[in-house]
Amino acid sequence: MHFSKTYLQLLLTLLPELHENAIQYHQLKNLINQLVQELSSLGLSPTMLRQLLEQRNHQCDLVPDSNDNHQQHATMVYEFTGTSSHIESHLQLCVKHPTDTMGVASGHMTTPDSILEALQFHSRALESNTAFVNISYSSTNTHNLIIPLQSDTVFFQLLNAALALLAEQLNTVHGGFISTLQSLAHAISATACPTSSSVPCSFSTYSMAANNAATLRPSSGGQKTDLYSWREIFQIYVEGEIFESVGERTCGECSVKEAETQMKQFEECMQEKRDELFILDLKRFQFANAEATCKILKKHTKQTALPLPFHLLSLWNGSLPVSLPPVELASLPQPLASLPRLLVQAVSKILLPIVPHINNYLCLICTSLTFKPIRLGHGHLFCVRCLVKLQKHGNANCPICRAPTVLKADCTNVDYALLNFMVDWFPLKSHAKLGANECDAAKEELEELGLAGGC
Predict the structure, then answer these.
(1) What is residue 101's three-state secondary structure?
(2) Is 290:281 a contact under the CB 8 Å cutoff?
(3) Long-range contacts at 54-57 (CB < 8 A, ≥ 24 apart)
(4) CA–CA separation, 319 and 80 (whole Å)
């Protein structure tokens, strides 16, 4: 299937506010066909135009010769002029009018009456490979001609306007999405409250002054609140890696196909998936427009033989060139950074921090909640049960950095601020970890007494 049909079908599957300002690929393609006809009417076939442009590019490499037959007799330059809102393109033709040397010998000298006639004369000579044999030149008979390209001007004005509208729309979408996220974050903050806010009567504070770290028990949390619902939603979203992978081998932005696959898996777990579907549509939309722009510019070069600066193609298909773009083309709107990636980063920055994620508070030894966290002298954290086991086995060095701080730890190393934070935000996990620690400790005591059993 041709790209134009695939592109149109993709746009029809997106939201109306997205595909209304998409790149008009079919219309741009028709303008390229009109440009080809316009050049042909001037006697500028793609083959001839390419040769004229190549002669201009290699003109500086030629060594002057006293024989005028070896000089460049026709050159062409493809140029852009105008402002950022009105780009115009034209060809600048420099022609040295040729005369037929055979005609001179026979007394019949052929001199074209116009520049275009000279160009057509030169074209026929190129096709018969006799340009440097039967044509002589006069340095005083040289003329320059500016050939405006109407279809090409309309092409770039349409492309420029489409890119400008696209950039404006994506900026608007970005601003609206951020505003929606902030409103949602405010609503979540009001409902996903910790125990000290939602059930203040059931929350008791651990403190070194009260010396209650060993006796105070965290609340079981009672009924689940919105805190647990939102934590579950955020955990499914993070683990799904829908739009961006954090794995060592696959780190980076996911492709459209990968995002679609992971989105289907996310849909099986979630019913409220509006924002994620919008980001996926936006990812398809921006990818399709970037590909359409790249393809239409390449088609322009291929069918007309008019060379586009590398800057234009590289913007949509690869890294930027070292050299700066021409001033007349720098006004074309440049593609934005991946907007879906910016939106995903906004979700991670604005929404996810509202509800603390348990993965940030795990003990690196038992990989469960670091309940009753013990902060060693050099700063590393472990749960009290794992630290007691290390001390019983005589392991003096920190498992992470090998610092000799394990045996020096005591009740003064309890991080009460973090302990209260965990009990407040993870009451169920804290209660479960306390029960597991007590069961493990009871089992160890029975084993030390030579009795088999458990809690």
Answers:
(1) helix
(2) no
(3) none
(4) 23
SS (H, E, C) 319-364: CCCCCCCCCCCCCCCCCCCCHHHHHHHHHHHHHHHHCCCHHHHECC
Check: CB of residue 162 under 8 Å from CB of residue 24. Answer: yes
What is the residue whose two structure tokens read 């009001």?
A: 190
Residue pair 55/72 in contact by the 8 Å Cβ criterion: yes
Cα angle 85, 87, 91 (rounded to 5 degrees) comes to: 175
What is the chain's pLDDT, residue by residue, as a tens digit (455 residues)? 588 888 888 888 887 777 778 888 989 999 999 999 998 888 888 888 888 887 765 554 444 444 444 445 667 888 888 776 677 888 888 776 555 544 444 444 444 445 555 555 555 555 554 433 333 444 456 677 888 889 998 998 888 888 888 888 888 888 888 998 898 888 888 888 887 776 666 666 777 666 666 666 676 655 556 788 788 778 877 777 777 776 666 777 778 788 878 777 776 666 544 555 677 788 888 888 888 888 888 888 888 888 875 545 444 443 333 333 444 444 455 555 677 778 888 888 888 888 888 888 999 999 999 988 999 988 899 999 999 999 999 999 999 999 999 999 988 898 988 988 988 888 888 888 988 888 988 888 888 787 765 55
3-class secondary structure for 210-264? CCCCCCCCCCCCCCCCHHHHHHHHHHHHHHHCCCEECCCCCCEECCHHHHHHHHH
Per the listing, tokens 């038992």 go with 366
State the Cα angle at 148 between 145 and 153, rounded to 5°. 155
| Torsion from C-alpha of 333, 338, 344, 348, nearest 10 degrees | -80
Strand partners, 86: 83
**Tokens 């066909």 — which residue?**
33
CA atoms within 13 A on the CB side of 310: 7
Any idea which residue has 């809690």 for tokens? Answer: 455
CA distance 49 to 57: 12
Contacts of 224 (CB under 8 A, 6+ apart): none
CA–CA gap between residue 157 and residue 376 (Å, rounded): 66
Task: Please name the residue that has the structure tokens 């970890």.
Answer: 433
Kind plus residue range of the DSSP H or E element containing 168: helix 150-191
Q: In whole angstroms, give the CA distance from residue 345 to residue 342.
A: 5
Distance CA 75, CA 93 (A): 6
